[in-house]
Amino acid sequence: MTTMETQRQDVLNLKVGELVEVRSEEEILATLDEKGELQSLPFMPEMRQFCGQRFRVQKLALKLCDTISWTGMYRMENAVHLAGVRCDGQAHGGCQAGCNVYWKEAWLKRVSDDGREPVAAPVSGGTVPSGGCSVAALLAATRKDDERYSCQATELLRAAPTRVPPWDVRQYLLDVTSRNAGLLPTIRSVAAGVFNEYQDVSRRFVPKWLRIHQGKRYPFIDGSLQKTPNEALDLQPGELVRVKSKEEIVATLDTRNRNRGMSFDAEQLKYCGREARVLRRVNRIIEEPTGKMMELKNPCIIEDVICTSDYHRLCPRGIYPYWREIWLERVT
Question: Mind listing the domains of the chain with CATH numbers?
Fold first, then answer.
């Protein structure tokens, strides 16, 4: 069998909503290099618990927003996100970020329409490094050194090195044809993106008196405080909360739209006035640019809502936004 033929077997061309089965641990380890990676994407120890289980494809991981150096959008190849599968951080110092896991298609196999028998498809040899990886090596790969961790989130720019510029129309066509996003949300996202590109340019070349809303990006969030307030609710997992109104939240933000160092992002605006359940209190997360564990002086809250990237080119990562308790109120 030729290399080209075996490489094609690794590409399943999965669709949103398809049922897949995670391959066995032995099969997946055989696809990895000595660092526990396939095409520079780590297979994390937290993913082992899902081997042999079946899930629906939630989104195709076609692209990702750079949260390491904030340089835009990057293209991922042959990977998906599975519904309900997130990292629990147990092999990474108990990180509580709950990141959406990336699955290379080589780690999955289709399940037939009746849901009973996996479609026969051997692990191909064309993209499989020789020798594979051991569980011990997989565990060792979670650390760069004594102070820094390594995970999918810290290594995304190695796994997806190709930048996708905003004017690349193909990305938006793929968003719709893959069913990652609907047509109307895509049109709205593109329109907002075009406007925000203009705003970025206007801050450099247009006189202040001619700028739209001081050249700020849409949707406009206008924090104005020099020192931001604090409120402790001691929220616990399972509690029902309501996100405060935009006006109430903006009143807690500084000129960089932060409250005690934590940004309130435009993607969080859609949840203002809505109710949600508290998933957990977050005290420690891995800092993606450095890999170091951050111990939060002021714990934040994760709810059962995700970033839908309406204003960030519909990135399918589905990150959990972080919430200050002062932005929330209990529902009794």
Answer: 3-164 (no CATH), 169-213 (no CATH), 219-330 (2.30.30)
Q: Which helix (H) or strand (E) holds 64?
A: strand 63-65
- Considering the chain, what is the average pLDDT of its residues? 92
Q: What does the alpha-carbon distance between residue 259 and residue 197 come to, in Å, rounded to a whole number? A: 26
Q: Are 92 and 143 in contact (CB under 8 A)?
A: no
Per-residue confidence (pLDDT) for residue 299, from 0 to 100: 87
Q: Which residues of 252-263 are buried (b: 16+ CB within 10 A; e: fewer)?
A: bbeeebbbeebe
Give tens-digit pLDDT for 214-227: 999 999 999 999 99
- What is d(CA 277, CA 283) in angstroms, rounded to the nearest whole number? 18
Contact between residue 190 and residue 170 where contact means Cβ atoms under 8 Å apart: no
CB 308 within 8 A of CB 100: no
Give the model's pLDDT for residue 127: 44
Tokens describing residue 332:
């009794």
| Torsion angle in degrees (nearest 10) through CA of 215, 328, 251, 209 | 10
Residue for token pair 């090596």: 137
Per the CB < 8 A criterion, the answer to whether 141 and 43 are in contact is no
91/138 Cα distance (integer angstroms): 10
Q: How far apart are the first and last CA of the chain?
A: 64
One-letter identity of residue 70: W
Residues 64-102 have pLDDT tens digits of: 999 999 999 999 999 999 999 999 999 999 999 999 999
